[in-house]
């Protein structure tokens, strides 16, 4: 057993993570030599690191595709698995990290907090998130989760001189630590059941236990509670709006996408590889949570006046849709579309949400906080391009074709109909109408109201590139989704072939 | 030429979109350049749609009854394709769209002064989406166009609308969206049902329809409900009509013209194209028919009564649309050839006459900045050309013989009478009331003394304004005097739908054998309602 830990192949599949860590540490050192106006070199280095890691992950994807009989590579005695599922989600995570780096450059200049640690922490968070996508062992998953979470706490409180930022970080940290504790408690029970930390072993032991076994139930409930916390599902969502409002806007963008994708990776990995024998139980619980999440997220978003809080609730409503995919998945093989739906939705959501945040970041200017909804008033008359981009992102968030968001919602509805959850499908579409109402409040402000100030919007090369990338992906996935659907279906292969 | 032959529908569909791209590069200050360009593109859109008419009878029907079919895989992973094709019903509605689209844009030349560039861009986008709805033979593609259309209309109402534009715009969007997402669930249900029966995923309308008789009745009823709510909101049928007066009153003139002229037809088109053929057993179910017909009759009478009480010209016409569209849905659910073809003809008629009425209201609003009926009066003395055109359009709307409205309403009544004479009797009440409120409106605005000094200085129509109305007047006379070509293109598709819904309808039993050839020919019975209708009109004078 011990000797397997020294196989070279095991370390080869960790190459992206190792690269990111090295770049993160290098940034910390080189930052010492950079004077204030040259801090953007940190961002460039971080981008190079992400680019290398992405190339490596793409290479894995290519190699796996080239071998039709590809079996997932289980490194470290099956504790770390590189399958299409992991690669697909890692790609989304890396893309999201890159976009966040791009939108941060200008923003940090304006906040006058441009330092290397920011980028180093982003890269380390990405390492944690990638481990969540590919870990198949409770210890690996928990370490990955904590690496991600600790970086997030620090980044949320990154604006040292801002009270709101500090407050958000403390709240986020306390609730996050609590949820990690819950999760860890559930994991310890699973270890007790399985006698191993490997998900596959635990799954076998769980299947052997009788139906309605109390120990399995307690393990399941605590584990799910911890997971619902991480993905911000109702009733464990309270930290979201507070953390989103207080965090630096670029980090809000990051929080709303990266950790969301990674937490769903963890969630799905546990459900599919470990808790699969209990799928009826977790499906029943998830139905209630999903409906509650949709209801609260959508209804609370209507009354928000702060744009970052607004997006906090909007994120919660998107989590509700993703959970409906999980519900469909609970039907077993018939619910395989549920998994495709979640994959597509996560990808689509990452790009459209980051795009919207790109526009929000443009509103932050010297001496203008720009996170009030009214800051959007009259945007069309003074900055037509960002206004039109925002309309497209909002249409996509609301799920109107021909944008990417429609394909995501479409797949969620499809999976519900395929598994004959008709009542849930009606609830889901009803909230799509509510969602349009609150997203279009911003559109109405931009196009039909008078501007509040005339200070030009913040802009920069990084922001422009980020917006161009997110916009084109939002439109391309909407108009020609074929290759992206094919990728998502490929990512499903480890579980349903 | 062969390219044009094979891809004529794509050319018609993408002309407005292709024209939109250069428009975006014209500087916003050059308003007249933008206006010229917008009008030229819309006119080009009309010109490229003309070959459809000339080639229609000679073109081969390649898929079912559909002609000019184009089909390319789009998203093979879910079985959606770029699949276009038209039959006689879609042909008429497409021509209505290209004509009204051009006239609506032409009418906005001087009415729109702010944000001209965005205005024309929105109309071009709207035009493409509307055309796409009438051409799609793939349910996924259809849904995409159906939804896309909402976005430009939202902006047209919301940016260039009246005082309560924000409310009206979002109300319009939410109502329609609520219906259409339900329709999406209906589409998905059919899609999965087809898959579990045949093992294939497809959104292909023709293939789904071939399978339609196999769907069990309870499934059909549920899916029918999902589709019907969506279409009923769009039509709008009672009690889903409340968005319509708001949207119409607040929308700019051109927006109202397209809203009434084309957008409402999408609901009735949806019933004819999707509900009836895809869900024939549900559509013929007596309970379903009873509900739909009752709602139609309520809409006819309620719409007319509410119209009579209006003080605002535009609101009056908006409510009259509810009444007229009630006739269209009544015709559809008569489920016989007369009712259905009458309904399609009446949809075209409504597009012509109500489109023209909105243009007429727009013309007076541009001059007087009010639409209050009591502010006007005696205008026929200062604006004789205007009054004449208004008179023709008004008579066409109330269904005077020799004009288009008569043909449509008469054929619908014939169909309704054949299905159940009570229905026809109720509908006649609507015709009488219709004559009453329109003639009363005309009398109050055009006749009497012109004593308001603001009205005494009004200018009559200029050449451009006359030209926006003349094509519609010509078309109204054409349908009124010689409707045969219109009925001819409708014959086949309507028969196919009736066969789908009532498989035994055309079996040689004595009654139905006599009925079919009589379709286009006006016959004595309906003179009855007509006479009472004119009596009512005379009494008003």
Spatial order of the strands in the main sheet of chain B? 1-2-3
Largest sheet of chain B: 3 strands, antiparallel
Q: Give helix % range of chain B.
A: over 70%
Helix coverage percent of chain A: over 70%
Principal-axes geometry of chain A comes out as globular
Oligomer: heterodimer
Order of helices and strands of chain B: HHHEEEHHHHHHHHHHHHHHHHHHHHHH
Average pLDDT reading of chain A: 90
Strand composition percent of chain A: under 5%
The number of helical elements of chain A comes to: 20
Structural class of chain A: mainly alpha
Task: Tell me about the largest β-sheet of chain A.
Answer: 2 strands, antiparallel
- DSSP summary: helix tally of chain B: 25
Uncertain residue ranges of chain A: none
| Approximate strand percentage of chain B | under 5%
User: Biggest interface between protein chains, with counts per chain?
Assistant: A-B, 29 and 31 residues
How far apart the termini of chain A lie comes to 30 Å
Explain this structure.
The complex is a heterodimer of chains A (497) and B (541). Chain A is an all-alpha fold. Chain A has one domain. Chain A contains 20 helices and 2 strands. A two-stranded antiparallel ribbon of chain A has the order 1-2. The longest helix of chain A has 32 residues, at 163-194. In chain B, strands 1-2-3 form a 3-stranded antiparallel beta sheet. Chain B is mainly α. Chain B is 75% helix and 4% strand. The model of chain B is unreliable at 512-541 (pLDDT under 50). Chain B has helices at residues 2-6, 8-24, 31-56, 88-107, 116-135, 139-148, 150-160, 165-198, 205-210, 217-234, 243-250, 253-278, 280-284, 286-308, 313-334, 337-368, 379-382, 384-398, 404-419, 421-446, 453-456, 463-481, 484-501, 510-518, 527-540; strands spanning 61-63, 66-75, 80-86. Chain A binds chain B through residues 395, 400-402, 406, 410, 413-414, 417-418, 422, 425-426, 429-430, 432-433, 436-437, 440, 444, 447-448, 480-482, 485-486, 489, and chain B through 74-78, 143-144, 147-148, 150-151, 154-155, 158-159, 165-166, 169-170, 173-174, 177-178, 181-182, 184-185, 188-189, 191-192.
């Amino acid at each position: 057993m011990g000797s397997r830990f020294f196989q070279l192949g095991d370390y080869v599949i960790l190459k992206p993570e190792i690269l990111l860590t090295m770049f993160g540490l290098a940034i910390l050192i080189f930052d010492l030599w950079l004077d204030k106006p040259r801090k953007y070199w940190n961002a460039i280095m971080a981008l190079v690191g992400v680019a290398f890691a992405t190339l490596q992950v793409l290479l894995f994807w290519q190699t796996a595709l080239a071998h039709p009989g590809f079996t997932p590579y289980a490194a470290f005695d099956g504790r770390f698995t590189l399958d299409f599922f992991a690669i697909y989600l890692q790609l989304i995570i890396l893309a999201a990290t890159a976009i966040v780096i791009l939108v941060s450059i200008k923003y940090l200049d304006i906040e006058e907090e441009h330092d290397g640690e920011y980028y180093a922490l982003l890269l380390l968070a990405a390492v944690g998130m990638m481990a969540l996508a590919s870990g198949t062992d409770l210890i690996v998953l928990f370490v990955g989760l904590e690496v991600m979470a600790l970086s997030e706490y620090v980044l949320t409180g990154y604006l040292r001189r801002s009270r709101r930022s500090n407050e958000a970080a403390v709240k986020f940290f306390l609730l996050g630590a609590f949820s990690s504790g819950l999760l860890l408690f559930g994991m310890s029970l699973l270890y007790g059941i399985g006698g191993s930390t490997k998900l596959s072993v635990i799954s076998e032991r769980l299947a052997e236990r009788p139906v309605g076994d109390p120990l399995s139930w307690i393990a399941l409930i605590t584990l799910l509670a911890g997971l619902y916390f991480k993905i911000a599902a109702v009733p464990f969502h309270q930290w979201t709006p507070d953390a989103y409002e207080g965090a630096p806007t670029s980090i809000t963008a990051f929080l709303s996408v990266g950790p969301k994708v990674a937490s769903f990776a963890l969630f799905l990995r546990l459900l599919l590889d470990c808790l699969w024998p209990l799928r009826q139980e977790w499906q029943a619980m998830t139905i209630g949570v999903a409906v509650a999440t949709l209801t609260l997220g959508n209804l609370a978003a209507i009354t928000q006046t702060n744009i970052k809080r607004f997006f906090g609730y909007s994120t919660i409503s998107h989590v509700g849709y993703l959970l409906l995919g999980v519900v469909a998945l609970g039907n077993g093989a018939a619910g395989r579309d549920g998994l495709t739906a979640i994959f597509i939705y996560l990808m689509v959501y990452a790009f459209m949400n980051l795009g919207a945040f790109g526009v929000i970041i443009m509103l932050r200017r010297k001496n203008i906080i720009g996170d009030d909804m009214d800051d959007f008033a009259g945007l069309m008359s003074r900055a037509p391009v960002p206004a039109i981009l925002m309309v497209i992102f909002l249409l996509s968030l609301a799920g109107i074709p021909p944008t990417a968001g429609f394909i995501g919602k479409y797949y969620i509805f499809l999976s519900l109909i395929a598994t004959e959850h008709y009542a849930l499908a009606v609830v889901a579409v009803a909230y799509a109408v509510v969602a349009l109402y609150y997203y279009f409040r911003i559109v109405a402000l931009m196009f039909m109201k008078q501007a509040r100030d005339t200070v030009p919007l913040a802009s920069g090369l990084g922001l422009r590139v980020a917006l161009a990338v997110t916009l084109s992906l939002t439109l391309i996935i909407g108009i020609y989704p074929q290759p992206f659907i094919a990728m998502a279906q490929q990512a499903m292969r480890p579980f349903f072939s | 030429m062969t390219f044009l032959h094979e891809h004529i529908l794509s050319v018609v569909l993408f002309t407005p979109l292709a024209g939109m791209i250069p428009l975006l590069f014209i500087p916003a200050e050059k308003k007249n350049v933008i206006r010229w360009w917008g009008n030229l593109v819309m006119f080009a859109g009309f010109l490229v749609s003309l070959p459809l008419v000339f080639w229609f009878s000679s073109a081969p029907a390649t898929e079912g009854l559909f002609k000019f079919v184009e089909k390319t895989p789009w998203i093979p992973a879910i079985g959606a394709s770029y699949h276009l094709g038209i039959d006689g019903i879609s042909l008429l509605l497409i021509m209505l769209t290209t004509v009204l689209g051009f006239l609506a844009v032409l009418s906005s030349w001087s009415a729109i002064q702010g944000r001209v560039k965005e205005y024309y861009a929105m109309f071009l986008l709207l035009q493409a989406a509307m055309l796409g709805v009438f051409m799609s033979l793939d349910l996924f593609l259809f849904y995409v166009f159906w939804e896309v259309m909402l976005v430009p209309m939202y902006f047209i109402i919301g940016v260039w609308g009246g005082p309560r534009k924000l409310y009206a715009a979002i109300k319009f969007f939410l109502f329609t969206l609520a219906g259409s997402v339900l329709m999406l669930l209906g589409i998905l249900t059919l899609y999965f049902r087809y898959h579990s029966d045949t093992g294939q995923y497809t959104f292909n309308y023709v293939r789904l329809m071939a399978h339609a008789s196999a769907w069990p009745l309870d499934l059909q009823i549920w899916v029918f409900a999902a589709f019907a709510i969506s279409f009923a909101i769009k039509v709008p049928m009672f009690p889903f009509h409340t968005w319509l007066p708001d949207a119409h009153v607040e929308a700019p003139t051109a927006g109202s013209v397209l809203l009434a002229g084309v957008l409402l037809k999408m609901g009735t088109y949806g019933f004819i194209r999707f509900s009836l053929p895809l869900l024939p057993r549900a559509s013929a179910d007596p309970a379903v028919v009873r509900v739909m017909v009752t709602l139609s009759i309520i809409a006819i009478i309620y719409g007319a009564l509410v119209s009579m009480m209006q003080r605002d010209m535009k609101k009056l016409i908006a409510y009259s649309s509810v009444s007229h569209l009630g006739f269209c849905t009544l015709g559809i659910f008569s489920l016989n050839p007369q009712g259905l073809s009458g309904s399609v003809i009446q949809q075209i008629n409504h597009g012509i006459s109500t489109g023209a009425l909105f243009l007429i209201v727009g013309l007076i609003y541009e001059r007087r900045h009010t639409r209050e009926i009591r502010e006007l009066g005696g205008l026929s003395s200062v604006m004789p050309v205007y009054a004449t055109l208004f008179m023709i359009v008004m008579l066409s709307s109330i269904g005077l013989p020799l004009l288009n409205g008569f043909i449509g309403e008469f054929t619908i009544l014939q169909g309704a009478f054949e299905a159940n004479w009570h229905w026809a009797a109720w509908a006649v009440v609507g015709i009488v009331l219709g004559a009453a409120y329109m003639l009363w409106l005309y009398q109050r605005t055009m006749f009497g003394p012109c004593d308001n000094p603001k009205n005494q200085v009004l200018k009559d129509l200029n050449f451009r304004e006359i030209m926006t109305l003349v094509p519609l007047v010509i078309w109204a006379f054409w349908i009124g005097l010689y409707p045969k070509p219109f009925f001819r293109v409708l014959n086949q598709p309507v028969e196919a739908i009736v066969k789908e819904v009532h498989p035994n309808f055309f079996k040689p039993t004595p009654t139905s054998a006599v009925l079919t050839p009589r379709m286009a020919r006006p016959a004595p019975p309906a003179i009855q309602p007509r006479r009472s209708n004119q009596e009512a009109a005379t009494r008003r004078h």
